[in-house]
Amino acid sequence: MKTRQETVTIRFSEMKDAVSLMELDELVWDRNTAPEPLKWTSRDHYLLQCPPGTQLVALYEEELCGYVGFRAPTGLHSNRHVLELNIAVHPSHQRRGIGKRLIEAVKEMARAEGITKLRLRVLSSNPGALSFYKNCGFKEEGRLIQEFYVDGRYVDDILMCYFL
User: Fold this and answer.
1) Which long-range contacts (CB under 8 A, 24 or more apart) does 141-146 make?
2) Tens digit of pLDDT for each residue in 45-76?
3) pLDDT under 50 in the chain at which residues?
4) Is the pTM of this model over 0.85?
5) What backbone torsions phi and psi does residue 58 show, to the nearest 5 degrees?
6) What is 3-115's CATH number, 3.40.630.30, 3.40.50.2000, 1.20.80.10, 1.20.1560.10?
7) For the CA atoms of the chain, what is the radius of gyration?
């Protein structure tokens, strides 16, 4: 799947994207956006967890600037209609519509694959992400109260979903 709007291209991740995706993860996933900063031990470790084709990546003038990852939440046949998402956009490219384009692209891909529900998790300490997901049509479906203790305070883990 490729979509082009202005100078942003969205396509499935490829092997050549691994280093850029690892760098983006290290930049975006910190104590404000995740229970613990995300650090990959090696390119092989990254590729084992995030093989090519398991993300849609956004390229701005051929530079990788964001992704939305997707995976089945379990290996159960009865749960195969659900995809779990995670999304990251480089801070210098945020608030430019790239995240919205990634979410719309993953919705389109999921519909084509017969997926009927998208889900994700977001920390209560991340109001910008909460607002973004709500603007993309996601609804809160649950909350794990004081699920994490981050930087001296308890943080809720909010479960959100979108039905296709």
Assistant:
1) none
2) 999 999 999 999 999 988 999 999 999 999 99
3) 3-5
4) yes
5) -105, 130
6) 3.40.630.30
7) 15
